[in-house]
Amino acid sequence: MNESQLKQLLKNQRRYFASGATLSFRSRRQALTTLKDTILRYQRELCGALHTDLGKSETESYMCEIGLVLSELDWMLRHLRTLMRDKTVFTPPAQFAARSFRSPSPYGTVLIMSPWNYPVLLTLDPLIDALAAGNTAIVKPSAYAPATSSVLQKMLGESFSPAYVAVVTGGRAENQALLHQRFDKIFFTGGSTVGRQVLSAAAEHLTPVTLELGGKSPCIVDKSARISLAAKRIVFGKYLNCGQTCVAPDYILCHEDIQEALISAIKKEIIRQFGPRPLENPDYGKIINQRHFRRILGLIDPKKLVFGGEYEEDTLRIAPSVMANVTWSDAVMQEEIFGPILPILSFRSLGQAICCVESHPHPLALYLFSEDKAVQKKVLSRCRFGGGCINDTVIHLASAAMPFGGVGESGIGCYHGKDGFLEFSHTRSIVDKKTWMDLPVRYQPYSQLKSRMLKLFL
Hints:
Blueprint: H1 3-18, H2 25-41, H3 43-54, H4 58-84, E1 87-89, E2 98-106, E3 109-113, H5 121-132, E4 136-140, H6 146-159, E5 165-167, H7 172-179, E6 185-189, H8 192-205, E7 209-212, E8 218-221, H9 227-239, E9 251-255, H10 259-274, H11 290-297, E10 305-307, E11 311-312, E12 317-318, E13 321-323, E14 341-347, H12 350-358, E15 365-369, H13 373-382, E16 387-390, E17 404-405, E18 411-412, E19 414-415, H14 417-423, E20 425-433, H15 448-457
Parallel strand pairs: 3-4, 3-6, 4-5, 6-7, 8-9, 8-15, 9-14, 13-14, 15-16
Antiparallel strand pairs: 1-2, 2-20, 7-18, 10-13, 11-12, 17-19
Helix pairs in contact: 2-4, 3-4, 3-6, 4-5, 5-14, 9-10
């Protein structure tokens, strides 16, 4: 789609929004119901596309993508009417007689740019929130997941008019052409490099943005942790989707007293979950493409590899790998890994671990394994990060009741559930002033009596 076609598409969406067709509760509910019916109808095709693009099993596709989308849809359908209502707030005495209220209003036409690692979840979740808030949407899936992108284009094209929801496919040229347009809101999920480009393009039009980025998410393992359980949950979160998860534990910071025990437990857990030969496991995924495959292999230091390291170039699969005695000067610590390599660093004191986390850009997630409540409280109070778990990994993003988003270099804004609705809405402050009386105190000419009354009211 060239730039003139994009301009026409955007013009059509603006016209459709201006007609008021997206604003009523009935129309929003119908859009969400249509989307749910479409997902259920295309569920098998979506699973097949996810297997083609990322080697995901049907179970993982449902657990980590389709099921979470349906959960967000159900939550939004249950709460939509409440979210749309005006919320009455306190009115100061100086504004008597009046009613003050907060009123959510859709932005208008929004752009949703999604990544390749969870191409169904990270496309449809923000779309649900955008439609619930009353917007029209142009969706741009990643070109790196072409099979899933094709199914998304087909299913959304069958269910919605392009003037309401449109899918634009393609690569960098299409991304740039879209960013040259003036949208009312841009929602981007991806890497920080492209995120900066999106923010820069949005600044040209002063367009509000949501950036869901990533970073090196730490996993702190205190010496009070239950080692075997910590290993099980770390292995699950780290190697899910072959490590290509924005909130995966990027590295472990463990107390030096338990390092050897933790490494041993992680090795056993990898074998238990993926088998002695993970590359032969049909439910273990693959790296998205050759470029990322070679990049990830380049991060492995054979001298520090204590487990894994096997790979198959023809299938783009890299076995779950563990590196020990890693330092911040190693290549694996210079960038977000986004692959099945788990570096392990150690600390002597909790203060040292906290200093290590805080001396680097704020991560999208942080995980802490500890049975000590004082340790838990200290880490939560001292470390800045988007979200996370105590004694588990990654599951915090699966709840519509909690916002999901980053802070600092890991993102701007948040979504899911109520926060998603608000992220795609502008909340207007309205004072409905009554006409049956009008206090004269604010009007000139001023007097000492009026001044005393103002001080009393304010």
